[in-house]
Specification:
heterodimer; A: alpha+beta; Uridine Diphospho-n-acetylenolpyruvylglucosamine Reductase, domain 2; Uridine Diphospho-n-acetylenolpyruvylglucosamine Reductase, domain 3; Vanillyl-alcohol Oxidase, Chain A, domain 3; 4 domains; 5-stranded antiparallel sheet; 4-stranded mixed sheet; 21 helices; 16% strand; globular; B: alpha+beta; 3 domains; 6-stranded antiparallel sheet; 16 helices; 16 strands; 32% helix; binds flavin-adenine dinucleotide
Chain lengths: 552, 495
């Protein structure tokens, strides 16, 4: 069976007519996937089939459960979504139901003393962060933007501009409540135990966060609908109310009180791209030292592409800054906060200065254009609202070129490899990327060390336009890099596991695709919860798989 | 075919083709030693023990067990505390205590890769040569396997957030006997320790593939897989350290200050012990414990203030200043020694990174044995839970002053593991019974009131999972996916 009028009426009965609609105009709005090449191609491939058959807005876990049960009765696919920012939240086939959580937008609990919050799916990062800051706590923010669903992000991904302390989404998630693809409800962490409170992440018994997520990405709505999570709140010594003047321009200074939070920009002057290896390696050296001393609240290395995009106020501004060579190379950005006291902040500043001197770096001065442009306009926003619009500013689109999670050293290696391949492809016979915004697209280098540098995350990004041809080109570039990463035996290959990629790469990793299919079949026997994720449940023969993975 | 159809002889003969005959044990005396541990868990004998030396042997034994439907119980520590390593339904115990290699150390990326038989004493000794240390629990038993301690999620002494999840990547023999490697270790390589040589990885990605195994497998009490190698976060040995004590008359009096110390992220190792537990550590000999208990403050918060390589004096200074601020606010007195106890600060400082090495294990010193109850709570609820424990103990005429208490902050004070213990004389059957009754009743009452029993040993499984809706169904479904023949450690976690 599939989606039908009967199913539609059943949904309306459960939710009320105002919360379930098949109005094509409304539904069309839920097919407007933006940015990211896979989304552009999805739009091309699926056309009108990307328009959901129905959109529902449940108001409670019980309503979500009833929706999922109706989907199971009539056997139609459903997709949970947060704010719908990424392509995996969009239908790939006709007759799909989209579950929009807009009515489930409550901060159920904000526990100042024990540093956690309990939230529903439509609580945004900015919403939770503002409330948390009022009581001296905060949360990290994805570059995607603080408007996205905090729950969706923690449950499925979570790369942040300020994760030196916090780690990614996986580390910020505590307990969760999940409506499984069959409609059963399960709770994990202390949330599972009545009266215990929602403060803790693992148990009782195995930690089911391991089931909800896997790797850099979770199951993208392929394992049911998360209806509630508890998440960590982090110490925030800064102001209770964000210091904004007028709109978000903040031209000259960070606006943070100096005794609470201080920004630093550090450079290792070099000629791009010839000396980028030296620049990245020295940055890595600084991170290793900082990790040893366990100082700072923010520590990240940004290549030109992030510096220019995130600090620009308009497209013109972006190109003007590039013209002026405001960021002649990549920079390390460090934030120190007074977690213990002002003296601690001053101690850390002193240590940082010694370290920078030791590794041969230079502090960028406040009157330098780079400082004024980054610290003045953008740095705070890495803590506050990410703002992916800016990332997509050069071409109204952006794509990850290379990505990986490993040691800081390996991340530097992967950035160099990624950039090298991107440059070779650009210069090669097909001139891949020649219509992208250049040279931004070949100057990747986001080193994002996590948890004091015990591990690290990276991406290099490219900027194709929002058109199928360029999207295909971007994906060809990703493919080239991924092939090299497989050849290099890089852990990036694990990072790429998502959806159909399981079948290709699974045989390399203990046949994980077959294990994942067992999970999917067990928990979603009718393949209704965002079909295609976590992994395609149609099993290829082991021989075919071996062939696809190049005989590994 | 069931285990019953095997004679011991067939069993041992078959297993002897997998491991050398002298490592396959089936004599009753040896089997008896595997039938119990230090907990109250009932004795259950295995039919055979294989002391494996390699992952391959583990795989072979597990595959053999699958072919014949024989239960397998993995065991890495020579001593168990919670009944987890006792076979519930006979079969084979895979003893991994001989797998003792420290496979690789990476001081730059701060991890060490070890086999399951490596103990804290062995590991700390090796790491110290490189200025590093393992992130260890409070005075582990000298025989405790580092890997088991992590898989059982024993709390670490440090509340530092980034050290809360210590496990990085693992090699696992799945219940079907297949080999699986998690996180970055999944990259094809000839052996876990070879990954950094043969691949482009430093084993610094704990996540995936597919599932976050580094979270799913711990806490499964050896029912989801047998871990044969693991790399884990380690830390630097401080260049400076100072142990500070705060004494309290009542547990309630410590709460606000304790919260504050954690929020301000002062120091490294930090925990609270009551006089009974602390006396068991500090007393020079067991018969000194009663006296020691009488002179100690009823509750002592212990904080190890440390500094590393960079400007250590200044780091110590700002932390001490912050502590003084807190002390002024809460009218406390930070002490650098404990009145009446010689060199308490030195004894604690010396032992923070060490296993217990002073004769009988410290928890058993008072009376020969001890039964523990532990769970997680937010700090503010700990006095309420302590009262429940005391009330139950009193109702059973157990001397309240003998109860041990240990509070361990996690994630800078977001949660606290609370442990209470009831020392008893194991030779005295009445006393043993009394403690068993207290253990059962107090556990149940604590669970009913919302103490979070996240590590579910023995009878706790039923008590906890009866209150958690579908959760047990889910973990059982996962069990069936991973272990279709239900071979691995049956009887644990309610499986
Ligand atoms: C320009 C750009 C930049 C980006 N930068 C970042 C970044 O820096 N860091 C980062 O982490 N991500 C980034 N992303 C990816 C993505 O947008 C984010 O991960 C974001 O969290 C998505 O949030 P959302 O609320 O829009 O979720 P959606 O896009 O609506 O959903 C994301 C996925 O989660 C699933 N899902 C949503 N809600 C639920 C639920 N309740 N239960 C189960 N599954 C659910 C959906 O089905 C979907 O597969 C970026 C994307 C773009 C386009």
């Amino acid at each position: 069976m599939a989606f039908s009028d009967i199913a539609y009426r059943a949904l309306q009965d459960v939710l009320g007519e105002e919360n379930a609609t098949n109005d094509p105009v409304v539904c069309q709005a839920y097919s407007r996937v933006q940015w990211l090449p896979p989304g552009v191609l999805q739009r091309e491939r699926c056309g009108l089939d990307m328009r959901p058959a129905c959109v529902v807005m449940p108001g409670s876990t019980e309503e979500v459960q009833r929706i999922v049960k109706i989907a199971n009765r009539y056997k139609f696919p459903f997709i949970p979504r947060g704010s719908g920012f990424t392509f995996t939240a969009f239908p790939t086939m006709a007759g799909t139901l989209v579950i929009d959580p807009k009515r489930m937008n409550r901060i159920v609990e904000l526990n100042e003393q024990d540093m956690y919050a309990v939230i529903e799916p439509y609580v945004s990062f900015v919403g939770l962060q503002s409330e948390a800051m009022k009581v001296g706590l905060t949360i990290p923010t994805p570059l995607a933007g603080a408007h996205v669903s905090c729950l969706a992000n923690y449950a499925w991904h979570g790369a942040y501009g300020n994760s030196w302390l916090t780690g990614i989404g996986a580390q910020n998630l505590l307990g969760f409540e999940l409506v499984l693809p069959t409609g059963d409800i399960v709770r994990s962490g202390s949330m599972a135990c009545p009266e215990a409170g929602d403060f803790w992440n693992d148990g009782p018994g195995p930690d089911l966060r391991g089931f909800l997520r896997g790797g850099l990405f979770g199951h993208a709505g392929g394992m049911g609908v998360v209806t509630k999570i508890s998440c960590k709140l982090w110490q925030w010594p800064g102001p209770a109310v964000w210091p904004t003047k007028g709109n978000a321009k903040m031209k000259t200074s960070s606006g943070f009180p100096e005794d609470q939070f201080r920004w630093y920009m550090i450079k290792f002057p070099c000629k791009y791209p010839e000396q980028e290896e030296m620049e990245l390696k020295k940055s890595a050296e600084l991170f290793y030292e900082m990790g040893k001393a366990e100082i700072a609240a923010v520590a990240t290395h940004l290549a030109k592409q992030f510096l220019y995009t995130y600090s620009s106020q308009t497209k013109q501004d972006l190109f003007d800054n590039m013209e002026k060579d405001v960021f002649p190379c990549g920079f390390v950005v460090v934030g120190l906060q007074a977690s213990t006291s002002l003296r601690q902040l001053e101690y850390e500043e002193k240590v940082l200065k010694e370290m920078v001197a030791k590794v041969g770096g230079i502090f960028v001065k406040e009157d330098e254009p780079a400082y004024q442009t980054w610290i003045g306009r953008a740095a705070n926003e890495w803590l506050r609202f990410g703002n992916a619009q800016r990332l997509a500013r050069p071409s109204d689109n952006f794509s990850i070129g290379a990505s990986n999670v490993d040691s800081i050293d390996m991340i530097v290696y992967d950035i160099l490899e990624g950039n090298k391949i991107e440059r070779e492809l650009l210069a090669g016979p097909k001139h891949l990327g020649k219509d992208f915004v250049q040279p931004l697209s070949v100057h990747g280098g986001w080193i994002s060390p996590q948890e004091y540098g015990y591990w690290c995350l990276m991406t290099t990004d490219v900027f194709p336009e929002q058109a199928p041809d360029q999207a295909r080109e971007a994906i060809e570039i990703i493919g080239n890099i991924a092939r090299q990463q497989i050849k290099n035996k890089s852990s990036a290959t694990i990072v790429h596991l998502l959806g159909p990629a399981y079948d290709t790469l699974g045989p390399m990793f203990g046949n994980i695709h077959l294990i994942m299919k067992k999970f999917k079949n067990e928990f979603d026997p009718h393949n209704l919860s965002n079909p295609g994720y976590a992994t395609r449940p149609d099993v290829l023969s082991p021989e075919e798989l071996q062939k696809m993975a190049g005989g590994h | 075919m069931g285990a019953g159809e095997f004679s011991t002889e067939t069993f041992v003969k078959d297993l002897s083709t997998i491991a050398d005959a002298e490592r396959v044990l089936s004599d009753p005396e040896t089997l008896k030693t595997y039938a119990h541990d230090t907990s109250l868990a009932p004795s259950r004998r295995p039919d055979a023990v294989v002391k494996v030396r390699s992952t391959l042997e583990v795989q072979k034994v597990v595959k053999y067990a699958n072919e014949h439907g024989i239960p397998v119980t993995p065991r890495s520590s020579a001593t168990g505390f919670y009944g987890a390593g006792i076979p519930q339904e006979g079969g084979i115990v895979i003893d991994m205590t001989l797998m003792k290699r420290i496979l690789r150390l990476d001081t730059r990326n701060k991890w060490v890769l070890v086999e399951p038989g490596v103990t804290y004493g062995e590991l700390q000794k090796e790491l110290a040569k490189h200025g590093m240390r393992a992130v260890n629990p409070l005075l582990p038993h000298k025989d405790k396997s580092v890997i088991t301690s992590l898989l059982e999620r024993e709390p670490r002494l440090t509340p530092k957030h980034h050290l809360d999840e210590t496990i990085m990547t693992m090699e696992v023999v799945l219940p079907t006997g297949e080999l699986f490697r998690t996180g970055a270790m999944a990259i094809p390589a000839s052996a876990p320790e070879k990954v950094p040589d043969e691949a482009h990885s430093d084993l610094c990605n704990s996540m995936g593939p597919g599932i976050d195994w580094y979270r799913l497998i711990p806490g499964s009490l050896g029912t989801y897989g047998i871990v044969t190698a693991m790399n884990m976060k380690i830390a630097f040995i401080p260049t400076k350290q100072k142990v500070i004590f705060f004494g309290f008359k009542n547990l309630e009096d410590s709460i606000e200050a304790f919260y504050k110390i954690e929020r301000k992220q002062i120091g490294d190792e930090c925990f609270l012990l009551n006089s009974s537990y602390l006396a068991s550590i500090l007393a020079s000999a067991p018969d000194d414990i009663d006296h020691m208990r009488s002179i100690l403050p009823p509750y002592v918060l212990i904080l190890n203030v440390t500094a590393g390589e960079w400007l250590p004096e200044e780091k110590m200074d700002y932390q001490m200043e912050a502590l003084e601020d807190i002390s002024r606010t809460y009218l406390l007195k930070p002490m650098e020694s404990l009145p009446g106890v010689q060199e308490a600060e030195k004894v604690i400082a010396d032992r923070l990174y060490q296993p217990w090495d002073n004769g009988a294990y410290w928890k058993f010193r008072a009376k020969g044995a001890s039964q523990e109850i532990f769970f997680l709570t937010t700090l503010k609820r700990s006095p309420e839970f302590l009262n429940i424990v005391k009330t139950v103990a009193q109702a059973h005429d157990y001397p309240v002053s003998h109860i041990g208490l240990y509070l361990q902050p996690k994630q800078w004070g977001r949660a606290f593991q609370m442990e209470v213990s009831f020392p008893y004389n194991p030779e005295d059957m009445l006393e043993r019974q009394q403690v068993e009754n207290i253990y059962m009743q107090a556990s149940q009452e604590l669970i009913n009131k919302g103490a979070f029993f996240y590590r579910v040993y023995g009878p706790w499984a039923d008590m906890v999972y009866s209150r958690t809706g579908n959760l047990h169904d889910i973990i059982k479904k996962i069990k069936h996916i991973l272990d279709p023949n239900m071979i691995l450690n049956p009887g644990k976690l309610g499986f």
